């Protein structure tokens, strides 16, 4: 956790948004077969936690393929040729291994080239055709290296390429994965499953992350009872939280695709810890009705962070009561994920009456977070929640309407992505005491 001087800060703007459900079947763990996406306004769900959704009808990019020479000779890929589509490099020679680029390969390759460089050298160092080991793309400012993600399988030859400069391709792959029936059969993995090529972050980017971290956190009261602790969780804390959530997320009671009673899907993946929150009944329970699973316990380290954050917030807003969480709802948003304006009021009447705070951790890509006194986006305030930020709302703000309007692609700290294989998107944990 960062330690620093608590100071006032934090901008406010107005915001808006919407939600768009897709069809699904009640009683199935994964209910997004044949998803149909339609837009409808916020506030139509029967739940107080009106978990709005993503799916603004963005196109899902089908994977494209690029062909990269892996035999020991050096190949030069001319950037101009890539841009105008005339480059012979994209033809499939005999001695090539296919790198499947999910999304727009042109974007990817453009982003991998610096603005001043015209050539990218594809250097193959290995005798065998194992692209994991042999491809290194170097040019003046960045290098593209291939690493195997922890969960990759040797028999799986699909390779995902993502760029530290521009995670667009991997974002698209994440979107596609959300939609595919195939992915519905597997537990949702916070980390990219396949071999990952990443542009190594530049020294400049890494230093920027480090500088930010070394500044410590700043706290501010953004409305009575609502405290924002910016940059509160250190990168190490975030890595630990991500690894733990990823591990829990692929096990029993892990991440799943939640849906409402009316068949609408929330456009996020969810995992509940401690108790299950059921979007169909808007109640907490000991098991998840869709599959009978028991939610994992909240890791003790998480609770320590929360309790410390509550104490910190009390030094800024004394009216925020102390709380010790027994519920954590983890949401993972891809780049198109969102959540409609809602109130968190399915906790016990006592908890809400006392104004026990909801404590929210943001990790990964940043989000446009809306909050206000009404379920009206046009009247809501807006704040950007970035990786490492902790937001608390209790006391007078316990019933504040809030939601996530959008996720800002490619804004996660590079070092975090590098250390975890975190898929593009945002993890949010909200802790509550029932
Ligand atoms: O993702 C966020 O920042 C908010 C999540 C939230 O409001 C909820 O889970 O109830
Ligand atoms: Fe909420």
TrEMBL record:
Compartments (UniProt record): Cytoplasm; Nucleus
Main localization of the protein described in the UniProt heading: cytoplasm
Catalytic function, reaction form: an N(6)-methyl-2'-deoxyadenosine in DNA + 2-oxoglutarate + O2 = a 2'-deoxyadenosine in DNA + formaldehyde + succinate + CO2
Cofactor note: Binds 1 Fe(2+) ion per subunit.
Transmembrane segments: none
Keywords carried by this UniProt record: Cytoplasm, Dioxygenase, DNA damage, DNA repair, Iron, Metal-binding, Nucleus, Oxidoreductase
Listed InterPro entries: Alkb (IPR004574), AlkB-like (IPR027450), AlkB-like_sf (IPR037151), Oxoglu/Fe-dep_dioxygenase_dom (IPR005123)
Start and end residues of each stretch annotated as Disordered: 1-93, 145-185
UniProt cross-references to PROSITE patterns, sorted A to Z: FE2OG_OXY (PS51471)
EC number of this enzyme: 1.14.11.51
Gene Ontology molecular-function annotations: broad specificity oxidative DNA demethylase activity; DNA N6-methyladenine demethylase activity; ferrous iron binding; oxidative RNA demethylase activity
GO CC annotation terms, alphabetical: cytoplasm; nucleus
Gene3D superfamilies per UniProt: Alpha-ketoglutarate-dependent dioxygenase AlkB-like
Record keyword Iron present: yes
Cofactor or coenzyme needed: Fe(2+)
Basic and acidic residues composition bias: residue spans: 155-175
Binding-site positions, Fe cation: 342, 344, 402
GO biological process, one term: oxidative RNA demethylation
Domain Fe2OG dioxygenase: 324-434
Domain of life: Eukaryota
Compositionally skewed regions (Polar residues) per UniProt: 145-154
Family recorded in the similarity comment: Belongs to the alkB family.
Protein name: DNA N(6)-methyladenine demethylase
Provenance organism: Microthlaspi erraticum
